[in-house]
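Annual report, structural modelling task.

Input specification for the zinc ion complex:
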Amino acid sequence: MKLTPLVLGLATASLLGCVDEKLGTTQGETFEEYLAQVQREPGTGRYVLDWDIVVSTEAQVYEVWKQSQSGQALSIYSVGGQDIKWSPAMQKALTYCVSNNFGARKAQVVAAFEAATKQGWELYGDVKFIYDATQDANCNANNNAVVFDVSPITGAQYLARAFFPDSPRIERNVMIDSSAFDPAQTGNITFTNIMIHELGHALGFRHEHIARPNQQTPGCVEDNAYRTLEGYDALSTMHYPQCGSPNNTLALSLKDQTGIALVYGAARVPVAPVASVTSPADGATVPLSFDVVANIVDDDITTVELYIDDVLDQTLTTGPYTFQVDTTPGLHNLEVVATDSGGLTGSQPFSVNARDGNGGGGGNGDGDGDGNGNGNGTGDGTGGESADITGGCSTSSGGTGLGMLLLGLVSLVTRRRRS
Ligand SMILES: [Zn+2]
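The model returned the following structure:
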């Protein structure tokens, strides 16, 4: 494989110090910016494109640049007309652990995965990777509590390798070779961007250089089990630099960002639930047994809780959100709290005056004035997400049609997996 010697030829870059800026796009750059990155052949000054193609004039370089600015992103793994991708249920429950065997390097791996997911793919596609640190001590291919494991390896031929959504659990690992931690080996490609590339495979994306028209560079030709989403993108993070990409940082391209949305839908801005109580009215007089009817607006509610006098009384996980309450005579402060899969909350406090018999007095409107409650939650609620989603994900992680696909694809997978 040509990756190592070619990548070695690139200038070195620091690793984590520039994670955020490296996640920016190289797509949409001006021709001048593009031209400045093109290598010049020593001695002749000719432009070296595609690592081993030489052109002499700026006009020729311009044609290549122009081509790279059109077309759309990414190539999805596709067999027999069927895309190999995660199901809607799984795409937002991609749990993983990071092996303690990384030792002193573990923190760097954890940080890079956060950057490659939360600040990477998840910004553009409706997918969610969930780090489950509770599995780190037992983070290997036999751990079925997570969808995949992130584990170290030494002496591999690759910097890192991943898997595809239809891979069996035993192969669902991101293996990171010790060489990936060595800037002298990775050149302009940040550690985070290596992980973005690998997670691209985990999301079903093939190497983009296989979709390059007339791709003939040795080591860059693979197979036809892919579907280009909207053409060829020379700047994709899934495109090896040495296979004809001017994007030698492996940063997500603009078209990677739109491409993932074509497969998984656009990333959704987290919106806190809105909770309101339709019955009883705030301050109403009620019998000792009464229903609390709540109206919850959100598309991924995980729990709706009813608190009575600050004590959790009941929890519902699906609508209709009607609580049957039995309480004691007197004034009670109640609150309905809705929590979504992102850990965001919305709540509605209210009070009732419970009376023995049939009530009937109507609302006395004493409203205790704590109407604000805790309002809508903010922040990303990471901890809550993990807890909410992890439990439901692992059983369906096998994917479908595995057996049928595996036999014919083992050799392809092996070949493709190299970094
Ligand atoms: Zn790859």
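The radius of gyration is 27 Å.
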